[in-house]
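Per your request, structure below.
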């Protein structure tokens, strides 16, 4: 009977570990895909960063330190969250087989998973979302 309890406890611990790792992986994946801080200095910024990170068409790179990123989503919140303050970002896209980019500052709609941003949903303006 005691062995059965230990097995159940081990199973519960394993499941909790997997859940916690998945949450952390979502944030780490988000940082790999979308965060460039401090901003990489490059003559051909979009070409270099898009190729180095494996993006082929378009992507948004935000220029915030990790500590600021972790404060975007409320504690343990899951769902959409508009950044309270404008965020510096670079939008890179491929046009006619050549990368180009636009740097700007705007509020961003993030998707949060248990208090951490895991996706950029859209760029936000007070009139509409892009």
């Amino acid at each position: 009977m005691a062995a059965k309890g230990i097995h159940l406890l081990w199973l519960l611990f394993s499941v909790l570990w997997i859940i916690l790792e998945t949450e952390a992986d979502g944030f780490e994946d988000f940082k790999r895909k979308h965060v460039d801080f401090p901003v990489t200095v490059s003559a051909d910024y979009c070409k270099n960063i898009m190729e180095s990170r494996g993006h082929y068409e378009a992507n948004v790179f935000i220029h915030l330190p990790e500590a600021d990123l972790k404060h975007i989503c409320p504690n343990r919140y899951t769902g959409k969250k508009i950044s309270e303050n404008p965020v510096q970002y670079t939008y890179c896209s491929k046009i006619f087989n050549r990368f180009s980019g636009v740097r700007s500052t705007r509020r961003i709609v993030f998707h949060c998973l248990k208090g951490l941003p895991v996706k950029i949903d859209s760029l936000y303006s007070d009139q509409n979302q892009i």
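The chain is about 35% helix and 35% strand.

Regards,
D.
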